[in-house]
């Protein structure tokens, strides 16, 4: 019976969270924006992004509230993880900009999460329960914290894997073209050497008319 109530409470807790996780490609000199709605003041907004491939793995970003006020921004950032409070009801914009690249596109993973309820603070000491909290609520809070830590670790390892794969692909492409140019250079040098040797052993004479 306790397990049943735990699952029901966990479902209600998760139901109060809206989350969007996407992967997108931003072309060179492109600005791309995404939007979420905040229905009540005081909602917590979580924003995470990581550049998976492209160039130096960096991108410009900014977050604006419905009044077009800049809440967060950054230049040439590889990744970021932010949590802030939505004090204005309306549509919030999350924009990425790839102005520093003239040819290279960027692959970005990002996650936008809106919580309908303020996050609970962890107890001051392990096992300590506040007057307004129950043992069930504390268990749900701890379970949610562990799930969030696992999610962050997964994102971290996924980002490292994608960046490593991108570096390997870039190195492989450079080695391929280097091998082609080196082969062409060797062939050209061989032809030039044969030509020079032929000129050394070829007898040439000149005729003069008197």
TrEMBL record:
Residues 31-114 form the GOLD domain. It is found in: Endomembrane system; Membrane. The keyword Signal applies. Its main location: membrane. SMART domains: EMP24_GP25L. Keywords: Membrane, Signal, Transmembrane, Transmembrane helix. The keyword Transmembrane applies. Residues 1-19 form the signal peptide. One of its GO terms (cellular component) is membrane. InterPro entries: Emp24-like (IPR015720), GOLD_dom (IPR009038), GOLD_dom_sf (IPR036598). It is a single-pass membrane protein; Single-pass type I membrane protein. The chain crosses the membrane at residues 175-197. Belongs to the EMP24/GP25L family. This is GOLD domain-containing protein. It comes from Fistulina hepatica ATCC 64428.
């Amino acid at each position: 019976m306790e397990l049943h109530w735990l699952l029901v409470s966990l479902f209600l807790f998760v139901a109060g969270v809206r989350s969007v996780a996407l992967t997108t490609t931003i072309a060179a000199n492109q600005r791309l924006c995404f939007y979420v709605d905040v229905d009540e003041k005081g909602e917590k907004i979580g924003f995470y992004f990581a550049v998976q491939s492209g160039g130096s793995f960096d991108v410009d970003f900014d977050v604006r509230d419905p009044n077009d006020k800049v809440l967060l921004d950054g230049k040439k950032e590889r990744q970021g993880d932010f949590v802030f409070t939505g004090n204005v009801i309306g549509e919030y914009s999350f924009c990425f900009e790839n102005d520093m690249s003239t040819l290279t596109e960027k692959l970005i993973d990002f996650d936008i999460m809106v919580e309908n309820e303020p996050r609970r603070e962890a107890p001051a000491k392990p096992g300590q329960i506040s007057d307004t909290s129950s043992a069930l609520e504390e268990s749900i809070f701890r379970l949610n914290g562990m799930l969030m830590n696992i999610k962050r670790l997964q994102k971290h390892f996924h980002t490292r894997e994608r960046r490593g794969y991108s570096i390997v692909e870039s190195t492989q492409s450079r080695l391929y073209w280097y091998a082609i140019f080196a082969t062409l250079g060797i062939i050209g040098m061989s032809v030039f050497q044969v030509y020079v040797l032929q000129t050394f052993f070829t007898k040439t004479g000149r005729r003069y008319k008197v």
